[in-house]
Structure formats: C-alpha cells, structure tokens
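Reproducibility note. Readers wishing to regenerate the assembly model reported in the main text can use the exact inputs given here. Chain order matters: entities are listed in the order in which they were concatenated for prediction.
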Amino acid sequence: MIDYRELLSLAIPQIILVVTALLLMAVDFVALRRASTATRFTTASVLGSLGCALAITQIAITHGQANLFDGVLMGAPFVRIVQIAILTLTIATLLLAVGSSFTRHVAEYVLLVLLATAGMLFLVATHDLLVIFISIELLSLSLYILSAFNKQSRFSWEAALKYFLFGGMSAAFLLYGLSILYGLSNSTSLPEIATAIHVVSPLLIISIVSVTVGLGFKVAAAPFHFWAPDVYQAAPIPSAAFIASGSKVASFIVFFQLATIGLAGTQGTANLGHFVRGWVPVIAIVATVSMLLGNLVAIRQRSVRRLLAYSAVAHAGYMLLALVAHNQQSLASLVYYVITYSVATIGAFAVLGVMEVQTGSDFLPELAGISRREPVLSFCLCLFLLSLAGIPPLAGFFGKFYLFVAVLQSTPGSMPLLWLVILAISTSAVSLYYYLRVLKNIYVTLPRAAAPGDGGYSGQLAIPESGERAVAVVDLDSPRAPHSGLGLTRLVAVILAGIVVLLGFFPSLIVNPLLNALAN
Amino acid sequence: MSFPALTILSLLPVGAAVLMLLLPRANATLPRVTAGTLSLLILAYTLLLWLRFDSTCGTFQFEERHAWITALHVEYRLAIDGISLVMLLLTAIVIPIGIAASWRTERRPSLYFALIFLLQATMFGTFTALNFFHWFIFWELSLIPAFFLIRLWGGKRAGRAATQFLVYTMVGSVTMLLSFLAIYVATGSFDFTELAGRGAGFLPAVAANLGWPYLTPGHLALLIFAGTFLGFAVKVPLIPFHTWLPATYTEAPSGVTAILTGAMSKMGVYGFLRILLPIFAPQIRQLITPLLWLSVATIVLSVFAAFAQKDIKRIFAYSSINHLGYCLLAGFALVRTSNPALLPEQYAALSGILLQLLSHALTAATIFWFISLLEFRANGDRFLSDFGGLRRLAPVFAGLMGIALFSSLGLPGLNGFPAEFLIFKGTFPLVPWATSISVLGLLITAVFILGVIQQVFTGPLHANRANFFDLTGAERCALAPAITLMFILGIYPQLVLSALNRTVIAYMHQLRF
Amino acid sequence: MLAWTIYISFLGAGAMLLLPNRAAKTGVRCLALFTATAGFGIALSAFLRHRTGEFFTVTDIDWIPALGIHYHLAADGISLSLVLLTGIVAVAGVLFSWDIDDRTNQFFAFYLLLIGAVYGVFLSYDLFLLFVFYEIVIIPKYFLIANWGSTRREYGAMKLAIYSFVGSAMVLVGLIAAFVAAGSQSMSLDYLAGSHFTAAFQLVAFPVVFIGFAILAGLWPFHTWAPTGHVAAPTAASMLLAGVVMKLGAYGCLRVAMTLFPLGLQPWSHHVLGFASWREVFAVLAVVGIIYGALVALVQRDFKFVIGYSSVSHMGFILLGLMTINLIGVSGAIIQMISHGLIAGLLFAVVGRMVYARTHTRELNALGPMNLSRLLPFAAVTFILAGMAGMGLPGFSGFVAELMIVLGAWGAFPALALCVGFGILIGIVYVWRAMQKAFFAEPDREAPPPHSLQPISLPEKLAAFLLIASSVAVGLYPQMVLNIIQPALNSPLFAGLRHGGWQ
Amino acid sequence: MTAPLSILAVCAILLGLLGTPAWPWFQSFLNGERSVIAEHVPGVATIMVTSSAIALFGIFLGWRLYGRKPISATETPDILSQLQPQTFRLLNHAYYVDLIYAATFVRLTRWSARLADIFDRFLFNGIVQGISFGVLTLAWIDSFVDNYIVNFGFDTGWRSLSIGGRVLASLQGGRVQTYLRFIGLALVALTIFLLWGAAR
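Running the prediction on these inputs yields the following structure tokens for the assembly.
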C-alpha cells in the first residue's frame, strides 16, 4: 500500500525547487517586463538561490532512514549530504549568473537550472533503474538547453548540438544496458538485481559496457568525453560551471551506486596482469584511458576552458578509481574528491568569467600578465588550479591522497591495484605542467607579450590549437552591463577559494560526517 | 693549566698580520719598518722559548692538551721537542730575512707583509701540532698566503707558477689526507705520538681492519704509505715531484722565495721526520732501495740541473732541492738498519739533518736576499750573462755574497760544512754506495757556485752594470747578523747540537723499537 | 615555540601579500628581514636549549582522524641543526636580495612562504604533514625563478618544478603504499618506522622513495635541474635552492627513505652489473655525481654555472655519506648539509649579487679584464674564503664534513673513498680556476671597466660575514653540532638502520 | 780575488789540522765528547817529518830562484825558463792537468748537466702536463654529456609527451560523426576485451 505522505516528505526539496522555478518565472514575466537583463538575472538567480537554500534547510532538519518502494526513493544521511552538496553547488552556479546578460530568456534559464538540480536530487536518492534513467534524462535535457543559451555565439549552438547528439546516443546505450539488466533480473531495483545476477554472462557484459558508455558520457570519461571540450569552451559561463560541477557529483554517485549495489556479485578484478571478467576491469580501463588522454591533451591546449575540459577528463579518470576500489572508504573519498573538484572548477569558471569580460577571450596569450590588473582573482585562480593539480594544503591534494589510500586499502596484502595508483600519481605529476602554464601566463608573462617565451617549450606553445577558436562572450547591447554583476562573481570566487583552502586544511569537515553517514 | 707558550707563539704572527692590515695606506716606509720590528720581536720570543727549552731531556715540552672534537677523538695537542725547536728557530730567523729581502715592495706593502706573517703563523702551527687534525689545518692553510704572495707580487708568468704550486701541493695533501683517514678508520686516532707508539708493522693490521676487498693488507699498507709519502715528497721536493719548484721559486719575488726555500720546504722534511719515519718505518724498510735511489737522483739530477741553468734564481732553486736531498738521504738511511753498532752514526746523521735544515735555511734565505739586492740594482735582470766584474764596483757586496755562497758549498768554517760533514759521516756507514754517489753532488755544487762567483764578480765589467753600487750602510748592518750567524754555526755548531742531543737519542730509540 | 618559525614566516608572507604593490620598498624589506630574523632567533634559542638531541614534540594535534593523521611537529638534533641553517640562510638571503625593486612585496611573500615550508618539512614528524610542506615548497620556487630570474628563467623554473613534482610523486607513491601496508593506522614517523615491512616490500619501496627525494638532492643523473635552476634563479632564490631546498631532498632520504625502509639497503640475493644492493648503487651514483659535477664545473664559461655544478658535486658527498650507513659517515653527511647550505649560499651571493648585479655579465672571460680584485676587493676576498670553504680546506665547515664522509667511506667502500679523493682535487682546481679567471686575470690597461661599480653595500657585508662566520664556527668546533646530531642518530628511530650494518 | 782565496787557504789549513788522525778533535767535538791527543800513532811521526821537510825544501828552492832579485816587470822572462825551458813549460801548463781536466771532467759535467736539464724540462714536466691535459679532456667530455645527453634527454622526453598530446588532441576534430565512431569503437573493444581478454 502506497504511503504518499512519506513520498511527499521525501520529495519536499525537489518540490521546493520546482515551486521556486515557477515562482520566479512568474515574477520575471509579470514584474520585470522591461527591466534590464542584468537586473532580471540578478533577481532570478537570487530567488533561485533562496529556493535552494530553503531546500537545504529542509534537508538539514530531516533525519533517519527511509526507503520507499524498495529503493525508488530513499532518505539516508549519506544521500542528504550529497544532496546538500549539490544544492550548494547550484547556488554557486546561480550566483555566477547574477548580472550576466548573454540571453534575454532569463527566467527560462534559471528554471532549467533548478529543474536539472531537482533531477540530480532524485538521481542520488534512488536505487531504481527507472527513476535513475528518468532523472538522468531530466538532468541531461536541461543541460543541453543550458549549454545552448548563448545566442550571440554560434559556437554555443554548435557545441550544444554536438552535446545533444552525443547525449542522445549515450542515453540510448544507457537505456539498452539497463533494459538488459532488467531482462536478466526482471527487477528494476538495484538490490534485487544484485541478488538475481551472479554469473558474468556475455549478455551481462554487453549491458555493463553499454551502461559504462552511458554514464561515462555523463562523467566525461575518455573515450566518451568528446563533447566536453566544445561545451566547456562555448557554453555560457554558468552553464559550463554547472555541467562541470553539479552534474558530475550526481553522475558519479549514481554510477557508483549502480555498479556497487546493482552489480554487487559481478565485480571481477583489475589486478595487474590478472583481469577477471566483471565491471571493475571495464572501469579500470576507462579510467586509465581518461587519465592518460586527459592529461596529455591538456598539455596542448591554449584555451583555458578547453584545458579545464581535458583536466575534467583526467579527473574523471582519477575518480573512477574509487569505483574500481568499490568500498565504503572509497565512496567517502569519491564524494570528498568530487565535491572539492566541483568547487575548484566552479571557482575557476567564475574567475574566467570575469577575465573574459576583461580580455575578451580565455586564450592563454590574452591572459598574459592579468595578475597585475586582477591580483585577487588571479590569486583565487591560482588556488583553484593548484587545488586541481593536487598541491597541498589545498583540498585537491587531500582528495587525491584519500582516494589513493582507499584504492590501495580495497585490496589488502600485495596491493594489486598499485599500478593504477602509480599511473594516477605520475599523470598528475604531468598535470602540474599545464596548470603551471596557465599561472605562468597570468603571473610571469608580461602583458601584451607577443608569444609566451617558455624557454625550450616556446616552439610548442606557439602552435595554435587545431580545434575551433572561441569568440568573445560579451554582451553586445550594453557594453557596461557586465561589470555590474562582476562584484558578486568576485565575491563568489573568493568564497569558493576560501572553501578550497578550508577543506584542504580541515578535510574532516566533510570526511567525518560522510564516514558517520556511511557507518549506519 | 700552564702557560700556553706555543699557542701564543702561533698567535703572535696572526696579531702582527692584523696590525699590518690596520696600518694607514698612505705611508710607504711605515709598513716595512713595522713588519721588520714585529718579525724581530717574534724571533726574540722564539729565542726565549729556546732558552727555556730543557735540553737535558728528549721528551716533548711546553705541552698543551685539550679535548676538542670528542666525537672524532680529536684533541688540541701542542708540544715541541728538539726537532720542532729547530724548525721554529729557523722559521723565526728566515722571516726577518725574507722581509728584509722584500724591503722595496711598492704594491700594497702592508698586505704583502701581513700575508708573510700569516704564512709564518701557519708554519709555527705546523711545527708545534702533534695531532693530525690541526696539523693538517695549518699545513693546508700555509698554501693560501704563499699562493697569493706568489700570484700577486710575482713575475710575468706568476699566475701559472702559483697555480702549479698550489695544485701540486694540494694533490700531495689530499693523498696524505686519504691515507690518514684510512689509518684513523682502523685505529681511531689522529695523534702522531700515539700512532708512532704503535710500533712496527701496525699498518698491515690497520689495512686488515679496513677490509679492502682487492688488495692484501701489506699492499694496502704500502698504498697508505705512498699517499703520505707523496704529500711530503712534493713539499720538500723530491725528484720527480719537484716540477712545480723551479717555476715557483723563479716567479716569486725573491723575498718570498727566501721564505719558501728557507722555511716552507722544511715543512716537508719536518713531515718526514715527525710523521713518515716514525709511523711508516716498516714500509720504508720495505722500499728502502728505491727510496734511496730517489734521494740520490734528487741530489745528483738537481745539482746537474742547477749547473745547466742561466737564471740565477733557477740555479739556487735547484741547489736547494739538492741540499734538502741530503737530508732525505740521511733520513732514509736512519731506518735502514737496527744494528746497535751503528747507533752513533745514526745519531750523527740525525743531528746532521737538523743542522743542515737550520744552516740551509740561513744560507739559502741569505742568498736569495742577495739576489733580491742584485735584482734591484740590475733592475730585474737575473741571468748570469747580465753580470760580470761587479767586484770592482761593489767589493763589500761581492765579499759578503761570496761568504754566503761559500757556506752554501760547504766551506769549512762556515755553517754548511759541519752539517754536511755530519750527514756524510753518519750516512756513509749506513748506506755506503748511495752516499758515495751523492758526494758527486758536493763536487758539482762547488763547481757551479764557483762558476757563479766567477761570472758575476770577476772578469770584465758588464756594460749594463756601469751604475751598479755597493751595499749601503743600512744593508750592511742588516746583513751583518746573518753572516755572523753563518760563521758562528760553522765554527761552533755545538751551540745548536748540544740542545738536540737528548732529542736525537730519544728519537732514534723510539724509531728503532 | 619552535613551531612559530613556520607560523611567523607564513604570517610574514601573508602580510607581504596584503601590502599594496606601491608600498615603501624599504618598509617591505625591513618587514621581511624582521620576519626572517625572528625565525632565526627562535631556531637559535631552540638550538641552544635542547642539547640532548633527542626527539621532543613541539605540537601534536589530532588532524584527520579518519586516517589517523596528526598535526605533529617534533624536532631532534638533526632537524634542529637544519632548522638553524634555514634560519641563517633565510636572513642572509633577505639581506642579499635588498636590491629587488620589481614587485618587492610579492618577491618576499614567495620567499617567506618558501622559508616557512622548509621549516615545516624539517619540523614535521607526521609524514603526511612532512609531505604537505614538501610540496608547498615547489610553487614559490617556481614563481621566484620565473618572475625574478635571469637567463632562460621560465625554462629553468618549469624544469625545476617538473623535476620536483615527479620526485614528490614518487615519494607519494611510496608513502601511501607504506601507510596502507602498515595498516593505515597512523602516518607518524615512529609508527611507520616501527611497523616492520616485509623485506620484499622495502626492497621495492626504498629506491622509489629514496630517488624521489634524491632528485631534489641533485642525485646524478637526475641533477640536471640544478644547474639550470640555480643559474636561472635570482640570487636569493638560488641561495635558498642550493642552501636549504636541496637539503630537503637529502633530509627526506635520511628521515623517510632510510628510516622507514632500512631493509631496502640490505644486499639483494643476486648481482646486477656487479651491484649487490641499492646501497652500492646509490653510493656509486653519488661518487659519480661528485666527480662529474666537479669536472663539468671545471670547464664552464658562465660563473654561475660553475657554482651550480659545484653544488651537484657537493650534494654527492651528502648522498655518499648517507650511504655509508655508519655513524661517522651519516653525521658527516649532516654536517655537509649544513656546510654546503652556508657555502653554496655565499658563493651564489657573490656571483649573483656582488658581481653579476654590478657587472651585468657572468662570462668568466669577460669578468677577467675588469680587474675585479681591485674594484670589488670585498667580493674577491669573500669568494676566496667561500671557495676555500667549498673545496674543503681545513678550518672551514667543508673540511670537517668531507673528512667525516671520507672516513665513513673508507669504512664502507674503500675504492670509492679513493675516487672521492680525486673529486676533491678537481674541486680545488675548478674553484681556483674560477677565482683566477674572475678576479685575478691580467687586467688589460687600455680598456677599463665601462661603468664604475658601486661599492659593496652594508647588507651584503653583513650577510657575507654571517655566513662565513658560521661556516668557520662549524669548521673549527664541529662538536657543537655533533653533540646533538649523534644522539639523534643513536635514537631508537634509526634502530632499523643500525641493524642494517650500522657501525 | 785575493780575499776569498786567502779565506780558502786559511780554511784549508785549518781543515788539514782538523783532520789529523793524531788528534781527531773535530769529529769528537761535533759528537759532543771531548777528545785527547793520541800519544803514539804508528807512522805519524815519520809522515809529519818528511812532509815538512819537503815543504821546507820547496820554499828554499823558490827563495833561491826568485828571492834574491825580485821580478821587476812581468815581461822579463822567468829565470827558470832560461835555465830549464821544458821544465818551465811543464810547470807553466801546470803539468797539463787543466787540459786533461777540461777534456774529461768538465765536458762530462756539462753534458750531464744539459741532460739533467732536458730531463727536468721535458720528461717530468711533460708527464705533469699530460695528466692535466687528460683531466681537462675528461671534463670536456662530461660537460658534453651533460648538455647533449642528460639535458637533451629531459627535453626530448618532455617534448615527446606533448607531441603525444598533440596527436591525441587531433582526435578532437570537431566532427560529431567521428566522435560517435569512437564510442562505437570503444564499445566493441571493451566487449571483446571482456569476452576474450579477461579471465573468467
């Protein structure tokens, strides 16, 4: 017998979001007809943020376990933590949009963001194939549109289109894989699937692979990452930040749950030289490819956004290691990692947003010597990038450390997964190079320097990127408008930088609650 | 604790150097006068030590001993016996001569004299130290002032010569350092007397402790010996390790050369007596024949080389190699046999060595002093062919320099004679063949020195030397003490020998058992 | 109290960052000097107070309970003496970079950040903490060189950063592996050193961690960052680089690699190319580094390159000393760390600040005709003293260090001891060559130096005096350092090493 | 030349006195023990007497020849040359000892001196020069190694990394078709790997 009251009580945050969305739409259409885009954006984002905040408080005050219709919708401390994280990231994203004016359809934009967030909240709170698929679609569709919002730039269109085609394809694979799972277990709830499936049949293999494709696309793991550079480069700053942060969190959580709960019996192993059938080897391979490809290609990038995209691929590779390890410790490390990563990425995008307005592009040579004009922001960007590179005492370092420890712990004894850790650490050593290159252009190279004279490497730097160039993402009708909102963006950047440092110094702030939540 | 006489002895020149550096730049005569007085004061202090030295016992005196680096068992240990005393004495005598010989230094005289005093300080340190650690400190540091004296005040090719001098000596020092560290690793001691006390053949045991995988202990012992030997052989020098010497002595200003040959080369001989013979006696016995050949070659080759030179400085550079060659010959002869019947000869040889060191210091320094005077008067010409018939213009000059030269060829009545007499008397019974070959050295020395006298003072007057003038009164007064000392030592060597008898006996006793 | 060496430096760095770019330069400099001096003072007082040399805890706070990681600062004789060294070099560095005019506050901010991190590495007892500080060092290094450096600065800086990061990556692998293998209870030094890893594990982990650290210590053939980095760096940075940062590597080798994995030094079961153990391999590499560095320094035309390679050579001594796992050799290595820290700093100061900043050239052949020994007598004398100290002339710290290391080597690898002798000789020769070419070459009368050089300023003299004095002090009375080093080496922490053939 | 010669003479006489076996006080004096005159040494008396006699006879002869009328001018021929020309020639050339001496000993000495000098200049010096030259060559080789092998190795290693990056980056052609193709490839590859590559 269905208990709708409990259903409501569990879905309250999502409901809050939707209501806020409708509310602000009304406000925007009724009250602010002929206000400037900037003001409309401001009000909309603020309203949206308030909604999220409300949702957060609602989540924060609820306690205890709940499980509706064996896993269709769950409430658990762990889930709540993740949801809070997602909402916080959404707030940050929305605040980035304040004052920006790349589109006139403000309300729709914010609405989509909120809907996507609702999708994420469902995504992390369910153990049911159907809900997973539906909420993924809700999330993805809104993201496609969000990335296409900048009408001035045809690249935005193009990227969105690619994103859409790509996403549709991978969604098809995902659906295919899930349906096979259902066919094998004739159940849609993950625990039951786990109990039903024991043997790694070819059919299961097909489904594992196609599910990997589907979710690999969401987390932008190589070789399913091709959409990422274009979208990151061409999408409006808030959308890009949103895609890079919040959706990552949700996707990784669901990926983890799907694999560890749904396919509990059929991991297989990825021990060096002794791969055993199952989903672990698949993910190990995807992780390896992502780490290598992401880091190597990032070396070559001259657009900071594309660089972030490829570093995202690399980080996806690292985070997939947590799936390979698949134990509580690794789940905790995964959550910590993905959260800190998202924070750093949003921060980077925030800074880029300001800098693009200043310089008109995100290409390294244009950023040369900007630290003299924007000391604070440059410092923030420095923190974000170094955190991504995993330099202590910033959050990124502890994330890596914790993750690798978890991976090694997962297989006690002779550490058969050591090769993955070694690979990850060495590729991250490479990654420092391209992050430092950005910082070099910001801090060292003098403004208006023709070509960044990077000693022996100058030759490589001078070679232009083979891909498409981005054009300035500036508002056309009101040139002075952007600066009105930049103050807030600056503030956001600074706050995020503070968070990065804080979480780096006190990782326990997240790790302890996580472990407690996972314990019960 | 007692009065630290020796520490003060080493500190005095340092103080003098500081004082020199503090002098005002402008005044020209002030530095030289100060330097002269200070050096004489130091000489006086040394003489005081000599008087206080108790010649009735052959043990170490004025001992100072303090723990220093306990982790390395290194202690600060100073003491002197007769040998060290002679060394101190000759150093103290040579320095004033050197200063007098460089009386007319124009370029930065105060710095020049300061460096000379530093050199003296390091030499004092070397002659008083009984622990390898700080002995080596002084031994090495002595190079630095010497280097700069040669480098900055030397002749045209001084740079090359100085570097050669430094690097050459450093090679020796480093090999010596390695050997001593090897010894330390096995014995845990840096103390000369303690190591010497270990008695014969402790070195193979050392080598055995080292556990060298490739060589037998005996061979490793020889290797260690060779390292130390090289260090001293370069310093003395012993042919074929001497190639730095002619260039250096020639390029250095004569005053510095006087000090180099008078005092610094003695550091090498001192090393032989204080370190090599007592510690490495068995190894030396093993290699006695080649070593004797080396010293004979040194004596003969050097004297012939001297004969072939045209440059006066070069001549006496080689001749001082030759004179120290006698000391080494005698030194090796000392450890050749332990036949008690030969004990008196060994005493004679050892006292001969010491006397030779002293007298050669005096003579060579004086000769280079004269050479500096010559150079000054002949504005820089040094070749024999540039001189001639000076006796007519400068009889006193000729006479006094003649005396110095005669003493260097060992004329009876002058200081050279008793020393060489004792050496030959003592050495002949010990190593007859080597000694008899070495007599050739005396002969040729006589020949080329007479040649020099003849070329420089007799014959027709050289055209460029028309305005050559005789010694001034001041110069005569300055030279007089040195010349007198030559006569004194020549006629009454007991003055020194009496103070050394006990030491000699003790030394030989310790060397034999 | 000792922990404040770290905090005060970081605070100073923060203050520098907060200062506006247009702040009065002298004020900034004085602030930097004050900070550095304060750190030095604290270090000195601690050095004077703790004469036992045993480990004593400074701070111990539960930091990340999930992994049993503590914020644990502690110091023993070794770290104390190195902390003191850092203090001295820091002060000298500030004094020598008194002439920095471009973005002074940023320069000193990075500088102090670097200093603080170095203090941190020397003081941290928890290896996670140690690694954190160790990596913090990289970034300021990069910016100091890339921003204020000279020739090919960006190349040099990037090279240095990459090398360091690769090294620390290896260290990280080893640490994580050790942490997990030890049961991931705690990262504190004694816990990990006490948990007996299997010999097989240690034989693999030791080289990884050791090389990881040794890269920063300029182990041949991973030394190539050192000359380029040193040459590219501004004076103060190369002083710190050679003076303390390279010591971080050596310190890590001793404190982490050798302490955690003593069995890794044990002989293998088989011979490879005549090597029977990692110990021999690294000893030989160290000696190769000594001779190789000296030889290359012998033929350099750039004055600063001479010094750069000389520090490669000197670091070889340290590694050799560590590999002779006996008390005298290892303590010699530590003395050499101190000595080289002082001397290399001084040499770089002379070349970079006293000479290059005035003559604007580092070509030995170009410097010669300027007759610098007359124009800059102070620089000449300083260089002579520093050179003497560097080539291990007795009376200076270098002598004691090399003496003890060679003693250790005689005990462990006699053949290598002989090679070291050769290295020492070459060292003497190149120092002397550089000195003659730079200061005492024959001045050509007709072409006097184009610009009259301004005299050596007071800060430079102070700093030079400070460094020389400390070098001589160590050289004449090494006991004051040995007093606290040797108890530290005898502490139970190194029990494993002692079992592994300690003498 | 008189003064040095007389000094020489005096010293020679002294030396003669010092060395007599009858009274070897000099040796004993140096050895520091006082000595006594030996009362009767066999044969000493006769030797002393005869030698003194000969000396006296020589002096007498000289006095007979020259003492009476001293030589007024150098050009006046010597009396002996008139009395006994060949004896005089012999004496005048000092028994030709000088010639023999010059022909044998002096020449030999000069030759050996020249030899020693050459030895010194070329052999020993040459060895030293050779060693230093060898060291320098070694140094040059090492610096070459450092520039063109160690450094170059690092640079090329890094360059190859970033070239790999470029190659991979060229996959990102901007054409969706290729992207999708890659997905397909990955799918197939993974499936094949799982089916046949991994153990059961």
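We highlight two features of this model. Chain A touches chain D through 48 residues (CB under 8 Å). Residues 154-185 of chain A form the longest helix (32 residues).
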